[in-house]
Amino acid sequence: MHPFDTAIALAPIDAHRSRGATTPAYANMVGPFGGTTAAVLLHAALRHPARLGDPIALTVNYASALADGAFEIDARAVRTNRSTQHWVLQLLQGDEVAATATAVFAVRRATWSASEVVAPAELPAPQTLPREDLTHRPPWVHRYDMRFVEGGMPSRFDGTEHPHSQTRVWVRDEPPRAIDFASLAALCDTFFPRVYLRRRKVVPIGTVSLTTYFHADAAMLAAQGDQPVLGSARGVVFRNGYCDQRGEVWSAQRELLASTQQVMYYRE
Amino acid sequence: MHPFDTAIALAPIDAHRSRGATTPAYANMVGPFGGTTAAVLLHAALRHPARLGDPIALTVNYASALADGAFEIDARAVRTNRSTQHWVLQLLQGDEVAATATAVFAVRRATWSASEVVAPAELPAPQTLPREDLTHRPPWVHRYDMRFVEGGMPSRFDGTEHPHSQTRVWVRDEPPRAIDFASLAALCDTFFPRVYLRRRKVVPIGTVSLTTYFHADAAMLAAQGDQPVLGSARGVVFRNGYCDQRGEVWSAQRELLASTQQVMYYRE
After folding, report:
1. CA distance A37 to chain B (A)
2. Distance CA A102, CA A208 (A)
3. Under 8 Å CB-to-CB from A103, ≥6 apart: which residues?
4. Cβ-proximal residues to B193 (8 Å cutoff; 6+ apart), any chain
5. Is the N end or the C end of chain A the one with fewer CB atoms within 10 Å?
6. Is the pLDDT of residue B178 over 90?
7. Contact yes or no for A242 and B116 at CB 8 A
8. For A192-221, what is each residue's pLDDT tens digit?
9. With contacts defined as CB-CB under 8 Å, which chain B residues touch A78?
10. C-alpha–C-alpha distance, residues A185 and B40, integer Å
11. What would the pLDDT profile of B106-157 be if each residue is shown by its tens digit?
12. pLDDT for A135
C-alpha cells in the first residue's frame, strides 16, 4: 500500500461519518501536511456511496493544527441536482472541529473548450534537474520528488528580501503513484510558503483556507499516470498577517489539471 | 435605505438562524444576482453577536438558482480560536439547501507587508469613460456604475471567438454607497461571464463556486468610501462545461482590497 493511500484511508462508521488517522509518513513541523488533510476530506466524498460525478471545486479551511492520531470526518451531500452535487464536510478530533470543507461534484459533458492561461514553454525536463535537497525537511517533503526550475526553498535564510515568489517545479509522489483526484488535491498544497521565498526569513506560518478547481477528468488523469506534474505558484499580496497565492498544476502534456489558491497566516 | 442594504437585510430567528428575502432591485435573469447571495451569507456572520474580527476568506457554493422571495440562513461559528474564527453557513428555501458557504474571520495585527501583484498603471480615470450601456440588462446591473477600460460586455454576439477575456473596469454601487465587507463581497461577483467575452455567444451559464480573500481592513475601506474600485478579471481554463476566472479588486489608492476566483458552468 502506498503511504499516500494509508494517509487518506477511511473506515466507515455510519452513513455520514468515517474514521481516519494521521500517519508519520506525512508529518509536518506541527501536525500533518495540509495537503493530506485536503485529500482525505475530498476522499470522504469520493468514496461515499451517494457520490455523483467528479470533483469540480474543493475548499478546505484549517481551523487548527491537527493532533497526531485519529480523526473523524462528517461528509454530507446536502444537495444533489441532475448533474451536480454539493458536499459539506468537517474533520473532527474529539468534540473539536479541526477543519471545515465544501466540495462541488459534477458529471461533465463534452463542450467547447479553451485554455486562456498557458503552460510555461521550454522548461528543462525533470530528469535533467537535481532532486530537492531533503536535509532538515519534515517527513511529508520526502513523500514527493520535487525538481525546481525556479523558486525552490531558499538555501539561505539571511533576511534578504526577494522581489517575487514565482515557483516552477516538477513534482510527483515518491514512490511514484498514478495520479487521482485525491493526490491532485494534495499536490496543490505542496508549494512552499511564498513568504519564505519573499522574505528569506523563517516566521510562523500556516494555511488558513485552500481552494482548488479541478479541470482534469478521469481520462486526463489516466494519461498522466505517475509522471511528474508541472506546478507553478506565486504570491498575490502579503498584508498584516495574511497572504495569498495562486497556483496551477499542469500535466506532462501541458494540460491544466487544476488551478489552486490559498490564504496563509504569517507572523511578524 | 440603500437597495443593497435592503438586499442583505436579515431578521434574527434564533441563535443560528435569520430570515431574509430576495429583492427585485438585484434580480438577475433567473433568481437574484449571485453577488448579493454571497454578501448576505457573509452578512449573517458579520452581524452575528459571536463574530470575532474581520473576514479573511469566503467561499460560496451555489447549489441552485434561488427562487424569488424569502430565505433563511443558518450561520454557525464552529471553531473560535484566540484570533481566528471559522464559520459554516447554509442558505435555505423551504427544506432545500440553495447555497452553502464557509468563512474565516480573524483579528489582524500589523506585520511586514508587500504586494506582489501590482495594480495596472496609467488607466483612464472613471469619469473620462462612458457608463456601461444598461439596455436589455437585468436589474442588478443597474445597481452598479461600471466604466470599462477593456473587456466590457460584447456589443455583438456574432460567435467570433476572442483570444482573451481580460477585463478592467471601474465600478461602484449605484447610487454611491460607502464600501464595506459585504458590498466588497458582492463587487467580486460583478465581472460578466468570461465565456461571453471569449465566445461572443450567449450560452446558459451560472456560478458554481466563488472564493474571495479579503485584504482590506476597516481603515482601507474607510479611506475608499464610495469612490469607484478598479476591478480586473480574466479566464483561466474553459473545459467541458466548467471554466474558472481570477480577479482583483483595487482601491482608488491602488491597494488590493480583495482577490477573487470562481468556477462557472456553461453549456455547449
Report:
1. 17
2. 14
3. A41, A42, A45, A55, A57, A58, A59, A86, A87, A89
4. B205, B264, B266
5. N
6. yes
7. no
8. 999 999 999 999 999 999 999 999 999 999
9. 63, 90, 97, 100
10. 29
11. 999 999 999 999 998 889 999 999 998 888 899 999 999 999 999 999 989 9
12. 87
B42: CB partners within 8 A, 6+ apart: B55, B58, B101, B103, B181, B182, B185
pLDDT at position B121 is: 82
| Cβ distance of A97 and B115 shorter than 8 Å | no
d(CA B105, CA B85): 5
Q: Please report the DSSP string for A1-65 in residue order.
A: --HHHHHT--EE-SSSEEEEE--GGGB-SSSB-HHHHHHHHHHHHHT-TT--SEEEEEEEEE-SP
* Residue A168 to residue A214: CA distance in whole angstroms: 19
B54, B59, B65, B66 alpha-carbon torsion, rounded to 10°: -30
Inter-chain contact A90–B86, Cβ cutoff 8 Å?
Answer: no
Q: What percent of chain B lies above the pLDDT cut of 90? A: 96
